[in-house]
Write a structure and sequence with these properties.
CATH architecture of the largest domain: Ribbon
Helix content: 25-40%
Oligomer: single chain
Number of helices: 5
Shape: elongated
Structural class: alpha+beta
Distance between the termini: 71 Å
CATH superfamily of the largest domain: Umud Fragment, subunit A
Number of domains: 2
CATH class of the largest domain: Mainly Beta
Largest sheet: 10 strands, mixed
Length: 254
C-alpha cells in the first residue's frame, strides 16, 4: 500500500510539471490529459488496492468460514439441532451481523445450508438421513414415568423411514409382544399429537407414558388403550395425550 501511494505521488508530480510547461495553446489538451490521467491512475490504484486488501480478507474469510462450519457441525452433533445466530457468533468470537453475512455467503457458495432460525447445517451432511433422539424407556406393561430428556442421537436413512420428527424408545415389559414388540426392543416413533384408531401410540396419562394400541370411543366418552397380550386387559381412560405413533421396531438378534 505504501509503495502504491508513493508511486501515485511521483506520478502526479511529474504530470503537474508536464502540464505546467506544456505550450499555452494546448490548454484543452492539458485539461483532457490531466483528467484522463487522473482517472486512469485512480482506477489502477484502486484495482491494486482492492487486490491487496482482498487477498488479506480472503485469508480471514476462509479462517472464519472454517470456524463457523466447524462450530455448526459440532453444536448439531452435541445438541441434535442447529445453533442460533447469536450462539454461532459467541462460539466463533464474532458479531451476530458479521456471522449472518458470512452464513448467507456460505449458503450461496454451497458450504452451508441455511433456511431460517435454527436451521443451518453443513452441506457435507448427508441430506438423506434424519437425526433421531433417544429420550429413554417407556413401559409396555404398567405405565411408568415418561423421561423427557434426550440421552443421545442416532441417524436413520430417510429413504427407509421417511421424514421426521422421530424419536427412539426402548420398550419395557411384555404387553405388546403379540404386536412383535418385546422387552428391550427399540421402537421408532413419529412425533405427533394425533393418531388413527388402531395405531400403536405412545400415550401420556398424567405424567406416565405407555405404548398401547389406540382406540377412541367417543360414544362412551373414553379411550381404550389395548395391550397386544391376550393375558392382559384393556386400559380405559377419559383422556390421554398422544406423544407419537410407532412406525418401526428394531430388535437385537444376538
Amino acid at each position: 500500500m505504501v509503495i502504491w501511494k508513493g508511486l501515485s505521488v511521483l506520478f502526479f508530480v511529474d504530470l503537474d510539471k508536464f502540464v505546467r510547461f506544456a505550450p499555452p495553446g494546448k490548454k484543452v489538451f492539458k485539461k483532457v490529459l490531466t483528467t484522463g490521467a487522473m482517472v486512469c491512475i485512480i482506477c489502477v490504484l484502486m484495482k491494486h488496492m482492492f487486490y491487496l486488501i482482498g487477498g488479506g480478507m480472503r485469508s480471514k474469510d476462509k479462517t472464519l468460514m472454517a470456524a463457523i462450519e466447524r462450530f455448526v457441525c459440532e453444536y448439531a452433533d452435541r445438541n441434535g439441532y442447529s445453533p442460533s445466530m447469536q450462539e454461532i457468533a459467541d462460539g466463533v468470537g464474532s458479531s451476530k451481523p458479521t456471522v449472518y453475512r458470512y452464513i448467507s455467503q456460505m449458503n450461496r457458495d454451497g458450504i452451508l445450508e441455511y433456511s431460517g432460525v435454527r436451521n443451518v447445517h453443513s452441506a457435507k451432511d448427508n441430506p438423506s438421513t434424519a437425526r433421531v433422539g433417544i429420550p429413554g424407556r417407556v413401559a409396555c406393561g404398567l405405565p411408568k414415568l415418561a423421561e423427557e430428556n434426550i440421552e443421545e442421537y442416532v441417524k436413520l436413512p430417510v429413504s427407509l423411514f421417511g421424514e421426521g420428527p422421530f424419536y427412539l424408545l426402548t420398550a419395557s415389559g411384555n404387553s405388546m409382544i403379540e404386536a412383535g414388540i418385546d422387552d428391550g426392543d427399540w421402537v421408532l416413533v413419529r412425533q405427533q399429537d394425533t393418531a388413527e384408531p388402531g395405531k400403536v401410540v405412545v400415550a401420556l396419562i398424567g405424567d406416565e407414558a405407555t405404548l398401547k394400541r389406540y382406540y377412541p370411543e367417543p360414544d362412551k366418552h373414553r379411550i381404550r388403550l389395548h395391550p397386544e397380550n391376550s393375558t392382559m386387559k384393556d386400559i380405559y381412560v377419559d383422556s390421554c395425550e398422544i406423544q407419537g405413533v410407532a412406525v418401526s421396531v428394531f430388535k437385537d438378534l444376538t
